Amino acid sequence: MTTEVFKHLQKSALVGIIFGIALNAGRFYKEGLTVGNLNYFLYVLILMGGTFFMMGLMLNRRRADTTNMRIFAMKMSQKGILKYDSQAHMKDGKMKTGWLYLTDKMIIFANTPDPELIEKKAIRLSITKAESIERFKPTPFTNDGIRVTMKKGNSYEFFVSKTGKWMDMINEIKLGDHKKNKDEIEGEVQPSDQ
Questions:
Q1: Among 19, 116, 136, 158, which is least packed, fewest CB within 10 Å?
Q2: Does the pLDDT of residue 60 top 70, yes or no?
Q3: DSSP 108-156
Q4: How does pLDDT run across 61-90, given as a tens digit for each residue?
């Protein structure tokens, strides 16, 4: 379960409770807390909360406003630098919905549907300049967070599905850069034959 789904589930339960109380207030007042009234309250809670939950899931899928973000991904893919991408959320004071891209050198978060601004406003985080990139649990019930802490101290939190795959690919890129740097250093240090 992702953090977004968990939070929506909490809202749905609240909606169900509110409607359950509102539609049963007269019954509770007249008859008190009987088994029949309690059953009807649970019925309304499940019906209204479940409907709110399912509608939210259906309406929150990829929408037309992500089309330009997909075009941005195709551009990077044609250049051969895109490794992975997915719809994601970023916590920056409030939750921002957008698209997270993993290239051969960077993690990019874009959240504007405007095709003119998507490349300009995207947040670009260099993997080599990151102090740490780690997985974390945003809530006790979800484990879909990726925290990127830069060497300058800035921290970014992303919520994305398939977090394990993201971390594997990021570590693969970090390891590849580490091997390149090690090979370059060893090449510079080798003594000459003179």
A1: 116
A2: no
A3: EEE----TTTHHHH-EEEESTTEEEEEEE-SBTTB--EEEEEETTS-EE
A4: 555 456 666 667 777 777 777 888 887 888
Q: List 95's β-bridge partners, or say none.
A: 91
CA 17 from chain centre, in angstroms, equals 28
Yes or no: say if 147 and 155 are a contact pair by the CB < 8 Å rule: yes
Do the beta carbons of residue 52 and residue 16 sit within 8 Å?
A: yes
Condensed to tens digits (0 to 9), the pLDDT of residues 88-122 reads 888 877 878 888 888 888 888 887 766 667 777 78
Task: Report whether 112 contacts 71 (CB < 8 A).
Answer: no
Which parts of the chain fold into alpha helices (H)? 3-31, 35-59, 67-79, 118-121, 163-189
d(CA 46, CA 189): 69
Cα distance between residue 42 and residue 57, in whole Å: 22
Contact status, residue 108 vs residue 100, Cβ threshold 8 Å: yes
Cα–Cα distance between 166 and 157 in angstroms, integer? 14
Angle between helices 3-31 and 35-59 (to 10 degrees): 150
Indicate whether 51 pLDDT > 80.
Answer: yes
